Each structure stands twice: as C-alpha cells, then as structure tokens.
Amino acid sequence: MNVVVLSDTHAPRRWKTCPPAVAGHLRGADLILHAGDVCVGGVIDELAAYAPVHVVKGNNDGPDVVAPETLELDLGGLRVAMIHDSGTAQGRLARMRRRFPTAGLVVFGHSHIPMDQAADGLRIFNPGSPTDRRRQPHGTLGTLRVEDGRLVEARIVPVT
Predict the structure, then answer these.
(1) Which whole-number Å values give the CA distances from 15 to 22, 44, 146, in the listed order?
(2) The pTM is what?
(3) Is 2 exposed, middle or buried (0-12, 13-18, 19+ CB in 10 A)?
C-alpha cells in the first residue's frame, strides 16, 4: 500500500490548487492521510480525486472541514493514529505512546517541520508542509509503504 502523507496545506492562502509536484506523488497513492490545517473543505475533495482521504482537524480548519480531532486506522495490520498538534518536542514520543497505546505509527502536523523518529515500537511522522515551508529549506510531503502490516519505508520528500 502506497500512502501519501500531507499536513498544513493552508488553502486558499498557500494552496490555490494542488501543486504539480504534489500531484505527481498523489497519482500513485492508494491512500492519502492529511494531518490537519487543510483550512477549507475543497482541498479534501480535490485530494479525494486521487485516492481515499483520511483527515484530522487542525487549529486553522474552517467549519466546512468535517474531521475528528484524532483518528485511529488499521492499514493492512499496521495501527496508525493521527493528530494535528502533538505538543512540544520534548517528550513527544512518550506522550504519543500514552495517547495512542496500540499505534505503531503516529502521523501529525502543526509545526511544518518534517520529522521521522522511532523508539520502543512507535514511529512518529510529520510530513512538514508542501506549501508553507516556514524556516525549512523545502516544502515537503511524506510517503509511506506498508506491506503485510509493516511499515517498510517512510520518506520525507521535498516538493519545492
């Protein structure tokens, strides 16, 4: 299963329409995870034209973004949790383990800072933002490859 992970697209200010470099990755996706701050519901519809989408609500999402604050999914045997804001960097892995005790992977956003860390059977993954890089060198998204209930590859991909 090929999964594209997005966060913090911030439409319509930053995301007018799907950027071509992002669309190139979406065309091969079996599933799209968006970790919040889509800002307007039309982005979800746009993404759904590529693959099924799961979204959590971000702090900048408008009332037309209908999404839960957290979400837990089973991706072919891999337990995945999603949340927009995972809190401060200090103690994040332990905090996410307590919050999502059965998850093998937690996807989050909010900071716009790409991150991929693992310890004690939990991996936490922030794809960054494809449209609002802030202090990062590039706008980014994430790709995941899940096989037989295992995360076999996770990548942060520059798209700007």
Answers:
(1) 11, 12, 28
(2) 0.97
(3) middle
DSSP state at residue 103 = -
Q: Determine contact, residues 33/6, Cβ cutoff 8 Å.
A: yes
Contact assessment for residue 159 and residue 21, using Cβ atoms and an 8 Å cutoff = yes
Would the pLDDT of 122 be above 90?
yes
Token pair for 67: 């999404």
For the stretch 59-99, pLDDT in tens is 999 999 999 999 999 999 999 999 999 999 999 999 999 99
End-to-end CA distance of the chain: 25
Cβ distance 73 to 145 under 8 Å? no
- With tokens 């590859």, the residue in question is 153
